[in-house]
Design a protein that fits this description.
The protein is mostly beta strands and 451 residues long. The protein has 3 domains: 110 residues, no CATH class; 139 residues, no CATH class; 169 residues, no CATH class.
């Protein structure tokens, strides 16, 4: 219905994403760096050989920290100093100092300062994949600073700061704090992502294997996961979220929400604009919503709160409930009950098995208020405003083996006809006639009530 079919290609697409040479913005970094190789003091600690490197670099606010390393965890913090502090640790799990020295010398680290910008580059000559060497980077930057970070096989952490944040790791968790006046672009091919808040910017988050959790975003937010749950606190702008396997939970949406999952439930507590949701297997709960709602699941119930616009909902198996609408309601289920309250527009509802209950709101001049309510097994109940003008066409088909008695009950004085207990029908006008009220069931009663 929406773009759930696109999720079939999501895992492949995310995988290809990490086969290219990192961020395009960082691809030229290796050429730009020309600093001398940096080395630190080596000592023995807790059975490991450790080399630590520490540098203090004078800069001003508004610069950029760029780290491009073949390995190692990265942690960036901010502080109220016009200085970038770099601490790098190499840890070798070997028996002799000679072995440790070989591993330390193999991995080159270069640092360069260019005006307000600081660039770090880490490369291995030969033992790039050695499990005996661990690396970590801890960097403190001024509070107003941009960061671009790329590593292979480790996590990335960024604290609170003002500026643009772009991070990528081929395998590892990403954690980002409160980002002010900047956007966040975060990618990992295997790990979860957690962001506290993006204030004054947008967010683009990708993971090839893990969950995504974002607190608040004042701009737009785009989330993609090839396997994991998505959770968002609030988004002021547009929200686009896709996962190939996992649940989606949204606290509050702004201008619009468009989400899809190939396997999991969807919950949206509230939204100011339009909502479009789809899941291949799981329940859907939405509302209240300021705009229109479009919801579909291949298996699960659908619950929609009060909507300011039109509602369309479909499930291959489960109940559907709507608390209110500002426009038409079109709902269908292959098996389950349907309940629609306070509809300010026409209602079309169909189920293959279950009761159908509909309440129309007060009559509004010139608005189409027709109803087409159908169930293949269950009761139909419709509650109408007392002054509504409608033309009724209601019928009940009864299987001869049922042995039950079914009838049409009306508060509007309609004449009911029967045909040898196999059929019950009623046709007539309410308040002079108007929009068609078509009601149909098999082996069930029909109730037409005044509100």
């Amino acid at each position: 219905m929406i773009w759930l079919s696109d999720l079939v290609y999501l895992f492949v697409a995310v995988g290809l994403l990490f086969q290219v040479s990192g961020f395009s913005r960082l691809s030229g970094f290796a050429v730009a760096v020309a600093g001398a190789e940096e080395r630190g003091a080596v000592e023995k600690e807790d059975g490991y050989h450790v080399e630590r490197l520490s540098r203090a670099l004078a800069v001003t606010e508004g610069g950029q920290l760029a780290i491009d390393t073949h390995r190692g965890a990265i942690r960036v913090e901010s502080w109220d100093k016009a200085q970038v502090e770099v601490k790098i640790e190499k840890r070798a799990d070997v028996f002799t100092a000679v072995e440790a020295e070989r591993l330390f010398a193999d991995f080159e680290i270069e640092i360069e300062v260019n005006g307000t910008d600081v660039q770090l580059r880490g490369r291995s000559r030969g033992d790039r994949g050695s499990p005996l060497l661990e690396l970590s980077y801890v960097v403190k930057v001024p509070r107003r600073f941009d960061v671009e970070l790329e590593t292979i096989g480790s996590g990335i952490s960024v604290g609170d700061l003002q500026g643009e944040v772009r991070v990528e790791t081929s395998k590892g968790r990403i954690e980002i704090g409160h980002i002010i006046k900047g956007s966040v672009d975060a990618r990992t091919s295997g790990g979860s992502v957690r962001i506290t808040k993006i204030e004054g910017g947008n967010g683009q988050i990708y993971t090839g294997g893990g969950s995504i959790e974002v607190g608040e975003v004042t701009g737009d937010l785009n989330l993609k996961a090839s396997g994991g749950s998505l959770r968002v606190g609030a988004v002021v702008g547009e929200l686009l979220a896709q996962t190939a396997g996992g649940s989606i939970v949204i606290g509050r949406g702004g201008e619009s929400i468009k989400v899809a999952t190939a396997g999991g439930s969807i919950q949206i507590d509230a939204a100011d604009g339009d909502v479009q949701v789809e899941t291949a297997g799981g329940g859907i709960r939405v509302g209240p919503v300021g705009g229109n709602v479009l919801a579909e699941t291949a298996g699960g119930s659908i619950q929609i709160g009060v909507s300011g616009g039109a509602i369309k909902a479909k499930t291959a198996g489960g109940s559907i409930s709507v608390e209110g609408s500002g426009g038409p309601v079109v709902v269908a289920t292959a098996g389950g009950s349907i309940r629609v309250r306070e509809a300010h527009g026409y209602v079309e509802a169909e189920t293959a098995g279950g009761n159908v209950e509909v309440e129309l709101a007060a009559v509004e001049k010139g608005r189409n208020m027709h109803c087409d309510l159908k169930t293949a097994g269950g009761n139909v109940r419709v509650a109408l405003p007392e002054k509504i003008q409608a033309t009724v066409d209601a019928d009940i088909r009864i299987d001869e083996w049922s042995g039950a008695q079914y009838d049409i009950y009306s508060d509007f004085g309609l004449t009911v006809r029967r045909d040898k207990e196999r059929w019950v029908g009623a046709k007539g006008e309410i308040n002079g006639g108007g929009d068609l009220l078509k009601l149909s069931t098999e082996n069930g009663n029909i109730h037409i009530e005044k509100r």
